[in-house]
Predict the 3D structure of the following.
Amino acid sequence: MPIIVNLDVMLAKRKMKSKDLAEIIGITKANLSILKSGKAKAIRFSTLEAICKALDCQPSDILEFQE
Amino acid sequence: MISLSSLFKWLTASFIFLVGIQFLLTFGQLAVYLSQGSFNSKQIIGIRLPEQFSDAWFIVLVLITSIALAYFIFYLLKLWVIANDFSKREVFSKENAKSLNSIGKGICIFTVTLLGIDFILNLSYFFSLINQEEATSLAYTLGKRIGYIMGILAKWFPLLILAIFMLILSELIAKGSLIKSENDLTI
């Protein structure tokens, strides 16, 4: 899929663990792993909003389009 | 109250039992022939054949019918596995869609095979209709022949409808599994 999820990069920048982020945004670790690995087929606006709030960033920092 | 999925499971099990009995009755005729050297009565899927019908041809017919019935039982067992999945609420999966598709095709082949056998076995009666004394008018003979063909078709038509229903259901389950996987992978 040409949409790349840069969640790992943002987590490293904010020095936050996946487990902590999952707890803050209220999703399971397994679902966060699906999102990080790029296996997810869609992301809800509410989840994106929660991630952006937790990591204090913009959606463009997390999602990237590559040909 | 019994749930629909359990009802489906029990109906499938009863169907397997009934077809199994039919298989034993059909195949059992060979055992009778082997032990006695002759057939008690020549009967296949409820059709009684004339006594002068050759033993060799009857054995071939019994074997073809038994194979068709065994094939049908195999697909019914597959359906029973799916019925179990349904009762566990794992309905929308690619495996279920594939199995239902093969069951639908299998039942179609079984029905067409037995419809052919039924028709061939009754050909002698079909052609004798025209020679009967009461068949004085052409319209009467034509009507009786059409009625006769409709009778044979009506006997096997419900199974054909079941097969088509299975094929439609398999397409719905395939589409459902796609939607389910998309829903499962939406975070």
